[in-house]
Design brief:
This protein has helices at residues 32-41, 54-66, 108-116, and strands spanning 8-11, 45-48, 73-74, 95-97. By secondary structure, it is an alpha/beta fold. The protein has a single domain, classed as 3-Layer(aba) Sandwich (Rossmann fold).
Length: 136
């Protein structure tokens, strides 16, 4: 990615931001909201691009908002776009993040590294193992 370049990034919901439990909302994917927040802080515009519609779509939008993400647009290329059926539903984005990519979902840490060429500053909590008592 070129420094200071603002990207338009379309992000799927089920299986990408959250674990796939459609029509319910699954648990958030590891680092999903942290990465999305950082991408927004870096100046990128995020589009929620999902199969969901109607009430189920609103539930996804609300879930993301409750987790600190308000999208630039939802299922549109830009907020004011109106779908009239006479244009393609393919939206305009620089990148699409989706669990249905060839090769599957690579994870939010890898996505951040690919888009920014940086390593995310995330500290993992160490789990106590069977022999942790020996290290005291």
């Amino acid at each position: 990615m070129i420094a200071n370049e603002s990207l338009l990034i379309a992000v799927d919901f089920d299986g990408t931001i959250v674990e796939d439990a459609y029509p319910k909302i699954g648990a958030p994917q590891l680092f999903a909201f942290e990465t999305l927040k950082r991408l927004e802080q870096d100046g990128h515009r995020l589009i929620l691009w999902t199969y969901r519609s109607g009430r189920k779509l609103q539930e996804a939008v609300d879930f993301c908002k409750d987790n600190g993400i308000v999208f630039y647009a939802v299922n549109n290329s830009y907020p004011e776009e109106i779908f009239e059926g006479n244009v393609s539903r393919k939206i305009n984005a620089d990148y699409f993040i989706d669990d249905r990519n060839i090769g599957g979902f690579i994870g939010w840490g890898e996505i951040y590294q690919l888009l920014t060429k940086e390593t995310p500053n995330v500290q993992l909590k160490k789990k106590k193992g069977l022999f942790s008592f020996l290290k005291k």
